[in-house]
Prior knowledge:
Blueprint: H1 2-12, E1 16-25, E2 30-42, E3 46-48, H2 54-60, H3 62-78, E4 86-90, H4 93-98, H5 101-112, E5 119-124, H6 126-129, H7 132-145, E6 148-154, H8 162-166, E7 171-174, H9 176-180, H10 185-200, E8 204-208, H11 213-221, E9 226-228, E10 236-237
Parallel strand pairs: 2-4, 4-5, 5-6, 6-7, 7-8, 8-9
Antiparallel strand pairs: 1-2, 1-9, 1-10, 2-3
Helix pairs in contact: 2-3, 3-5, 5-7
This protein binds guanosine-5'-monophosphate (2 copies), manganese (II) ion and sodium ion (NA).
Amino acid sequence: RQIECDLRAAIVKNELELFYQPIVDVRDNRVHTFEALLRWRHPTRGLISPDAFIPIAEETGLIVEIGEWVVERACRDATVWPDDIRVAVNFSPVQFRRCDVVALIARTLAAAGLAPDRLEVEVTEAILIRDAEATCVVFDDLRRLGVRLCLDDFGSGYSSLSYLNKFPFDKIKIDRAFVSDMHNPKSLAVITAITQLAERLNLSLVVEGVESEEQLAILTNRGIHHIQGYLFSRPRPFAELLPVAVRAP
Ligand code: G
Ligand code: G
Ligand code: MN
Ligand code: NA
């Protein structure tokens, strides 16, 4: 397939690029994490979103090579940020299946000279469904390394509450579908319930997809402080990040 050939070439031709979106603590409006979001700068088609090529990368196994590039780039980028800003990197279940993620991360952190507690690994629950036991071993190893684990898109798929105490997560991120549907009292009730659950289980909580001041006010009223969304910033290229560390007026 054309796109597969192009994707192979893209790695070699350096057409992949990381954008970053801040996660802000709204109590002091400071960025505490930047999430790395992959882009493909295609010579003729322009900027391509990961939704358009990650599935192909997963099918073909190219995700292993791409994922290595992503975590290496992200860790190197993070070394120039202030020490209190972490970097979050998304990992595909295919990477966990096809490569030694622990070894990859250990050597990448060492090569970049980045403290392990500045890296957050984001996974979706898709990774927990198959091979739960093997995944748990890998997660424990990552935790021992000092890396933090975040369960992404929580509530969107086959979320089972048992995941939250079976696996050693530090943080959960509520799927943005609940925020866009927040005018619906049922969606808001789900957000509230997840908030209480996170508190009881001692997990940090991020809400993503916040686009308006109105949504923000409802969330902060419920004690939610860690926010990601267009209200603060869209994902932006590395070179444009510094002004983002302070919230735009
Ligand atoms: O960047 P955007 O907001 O369009 O991201 C779309 C989806 O692509 C998100 O679900 C995100 O998790 C995923 N994604 C972005 N970057 C990466 C990456 O580096 N690796 C993997 N596996 N998924 C990514
Ligand atoms: O990995 P994850 O699925 O969490 O990736 C975040 C995705 O959400 C990316 O595609 C990012 O561009 C997108 N995103 C981040 N903030 C917002 C927002 O406020 N609104 C919408 N519609 N999408 C967002
Ligand atoms: Mn994510
Ligand atoms: Na998400």
